């Protein structure tokens, strides 16, 4: 999950802004427009403030504070690129204007230009090596860039400098907490958050960071509570609502999660396209969990419309397409995500699923072999990669190699119950391949205990009953899956084969027709259907021939009876009647 932790923005901008009028002396006309702009700004009329600052600049273009205040107003309107241009002008006029560097870096952060922000902050740190704010903001950008160890180093540097400003120190601990969480050091992350809040209990980012640490522990209730705390101290905190939507998904409280996404979008005014893209991506994920796949697709496409360079939006699009059976299109979306972010683990995992559905097992294996070398600290990620790798080996009937992959997946101790269920389901499939049905049934039961809607478990369990000639159990297993809206071609195929073995050919044909309806190009199902149809045809021919033979036999019997009746026997006495 990506986090957006905005830091310093509100406090640094407002405090600096308020201090400006008292230290500047200009010509009357320029001063009038400057104060007019300040009044508009304080009333929240940012465009009017910009117009006034422009008038001041037109009269006297050499005053850096005019550009500085204009930049702040532009920032509040979400016009970050324009604000950056104004800060450049400030620095050009006064290279010692410290806050222009910091605020420009903030604008670069808002536009996801983390490398540029870091480069600018390095320049700032050279100029002001004793100012902890530069290190703190650099650490934040390193965190968002995914350089967690370096972010941690920067945060520690701020902490070691013991800044007098408790707000900056608190923020350093918040950054440290998030970096530690991403490095898998959750207990240390929580301790860092506690320290951050002891320093400043109004630090919304500390609550957000603590929520993220709880989320990593799957403690969804605690994570949600931290978001509520963040909202309490900062009611307009978009990040808190966005993160809360994710945590609510973990509790399957989907309607509330949608409400959080809508609230985040409402607060994102004027619309920052990067933030809005992330909001719609979250919304797509919630709709996907609600099995509203078409709506999830529309939300993902909306996210892409706002930010065509956001990798996770393409993952959302690909997942929705896959659920609609559009696997080729889904792979295109996942490839785009990987192109934009080669470390997007979710894209690799989801692409592997689509490759499995297309039965492109060699490609699946190659993809997973590459993905398992990715630099990630998330055990669930590696468990998922080895799970998908096992699916590839199962597809080419290399059951021994599949078993090794599943053992490796379990070594990572995945915490996601759905992932764990799939591991056991694939274990069952491997055991079926090795003809060890007792173990296979045990693994299937484990899978269904963890996730009662685990499609793979129903498939493998159905095959077990089929092989053991427990045909009624096989049909019952398939019907249970269908009742749970697990409508896959393999389920109907198993059901069809079970009916065929029971001699219920019409029912078998109906099930196989349904299987082909779901996967029209599957040659194996086509063959089974043709075989059953042939049996039905032969049975019909047999019935016709049998009927004909019965009719013929009846006709022969009737004929014989009639012939017998016509031939009446002659008595001996009649032979001598004419002789007397």
Automatic annotation (TrEMBL):
Keywords: Membrane, Repeat, TPR repeat, Transmembrane, Transmembrane helix. It holds the Pfam family TPR_1. TPR repeats lie at residues 30-63, 64-97, 132-165, 170-203, 204-237, 277-310, 311-344, 383-416, 489-522. The chain crosses the membrane at residues 541-563. InterPro entries: TPR-like_helical_dom_sf, TPR_2, TPR_rpt, Ycf3/AcsC/BcsC/TPR_MFPF. It comes from Acetivibrio clariflavus (strain DSM 19732 / NBRC 101661 / EBR45) (Clostridium clariflavum). This is Tetratricopeptide repeat protein.
